[in-house]
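Handoff note, outgoing to incoming analyst
You'll be picking up this chain. Sequence as last confirmed:
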Amino acid sequence: MSTASSNGPAGGLRPHSDTAEGNALGTRKSEHLEICLDEQHYAVETHSTGLEAVSFLHQALPEAADEEISTATEFLGHSIRLPMFISSMTGGSEAGYRANKDLARAAQTTGIPVGMGSIRILFRRPEVLDHFALKKIAPDVPVFANLGGVQAREMNHREVFEMLRRLEVQGIAIHLNPGQELFQPDGDRDFRGVFAALVRFVEQCPVPVIVKETGFGIDPRLLRRLLNAGVAYVDLAGSGGTNWVQVEAYRSTAQERAAAEEFQHWGFRTGILLGALEPLPDTAGRVLASGGLRTGLDMAKAVALGAHAAGYALPFIRAVHAGGAEQAVELIGRYHKVLRTVMLLSGCRSIAELRNGRLQRTASFRQAVADLRTAVGFDSPISGV
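Most recent structure output, in case you need it:
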C-alpha cells in the first residue's frame, strides 16, 4: 500500500463541479487514470487479499521436467496460454483508449484474454466505436466487453446485443460497483431491480456473461444465485487491491475524503473468498479471481484455491503507462515464469493438477474462512492441509 497521504497533493484534484465539463464521462475517466497512476500522491490500494497466509508445499523431488509443464487452459470457449486475463479497465478518455489498445496488443502477443473499458459511452458517442475495436488488434484471444449493472437495468438490451455483435467480442462483463457509485459525485444511487435485469440480460445475451464486483467482493450466496441464473463466470473481484471508494473520494471534497477513509477495510478479501468457496464443487470452472492480485505467485495461489483464472488490472495500467505494450508483455512473461516454477516445485504438470495442489494455510486464514462461511451460511469445513 502506498504511504501517500490520504488527502492527495495540496487538497487533491479540484472538487468535482456541477458543470457540464465536470460531469463529462471523459473527464471522470481521465481523473480515474490520473489517480490510479500517481502512486506518490494517491493511496488507492487498501489492506491485503489474504493470499499471503497461503503457501505451497515444496517438493524437493517433484518427479517432473520443465518441458512437461503446461500452463494452458480455456476461457470463454477458447484455448489460452495462461490461467489469467487482463481485467476490464477504464475507457472514455483518450489516455484510456490508448491504454486499452496497448493491453490488447499485449494480450495478443502472450495469448491471454483481455477486457475493454465500459462501452456505455458508445451509446452516447457512437463515433468513438473505433476506440473499442480491440478484436482487430487481438484476433486470436478472447476479448470481452464491459457494462455496469445499472446500465444493464436501464438500457435497451437489443441495442446492447447489437453493439456486442459490432465489437465482435466473445463475452461481456457486467460490473457491480454500488460502493464506487455512492462516492461518485455523479454516480448512481438506486440499485433496485439490477438482479432481475441481469437474469433477463443473461437469458437473451448472444455471448457468455461474466458478472464481477470492482473491489469489494461477491459473497458465496450471491455467487450461487448468479451461477444459477446462467452467468458463465463470476469474478469475485475482492478487496485487497484498488479501493474505488478511495479513488472517487479524491475527486471530491475534503468531507467526502474523510468519509471514504472509513471504508479502507470494507468488503470481502479475495483470498478469503476463495478459501470459503473451496468445498463447493458446483462452482468449479466458473469462478474468476481478481482484486489485489499483483504477482505470479498470487495467480498460482488463486488457481490452487479453485479459481478458473486470475485477473489483473492496476499492474497492467501502470505497465502500459510506463512502457506501452512491450512492458505489459514483459510483466506477463514474469508471471508466466513464476507460475511454471511454482508448478514444477509443487509437482504439478498441468493447471488441472495445480487446482488440486497441496497448500498450507495459516491458522488465521482458516479462522477467517470459517468465520466468513458461518456469516453467509456455509458452515462445512474447508479441505486441505
